Amino acid sequence: MAFFTSREIAAIAMSAALWSVLSAYITPIFWRATHLPFLCDMLGIISLILVTWWVRKFGAATITGIIATIITLMLNPYATQFLGFTAASVAFDVLTRLIGYQNCLQKSLASVISSLSTSVTSTALAGVIIGNLFMSPNSLVTMFGGLAFFVGLHAAGGAIGGIFGLMLVKALSTRISLPKV
User: Which residues, other chains included, contact 10 with Cβ-Cβ below 8 Å and sequence gap of 6+?
Assistant: First the structure.
């Protein structure tokens, strides 16, 4: 018996496609205009929260991140910084598994706290990876004031994306009834 059903595979594919296409075409415009990494983190966390809510199985967020990375690099071969978001999707997957899907997705106050902390932690990890591996130290200092501030910007984007992702999940859960896991 397969680990993921066809509906779960479709949810993973849709989330990855949404994340990668928007990241390949929209976020470079936002980056060039503002030099702020918020939008990348927001799109990623919204996609990861959505797929985690829909599938509720370990590995869904990781596979979403891997597929999104492949599609993004196919659409924009110079977007190698997206590998930081691949690591963030693995961290998000592991953290939501450790915290528990019920704690992240069903209980009101506990889900907000755990989902936001998971979002902030995973996007901060992406900021560390992107800042250390893909940004020159001179640009980090001149544009952002250092690596810590750059990581903080990524974490803030994760918090904003976490809020939007939880709002989306709340709206969808009132309209759609998913089978209990």
Answer: none
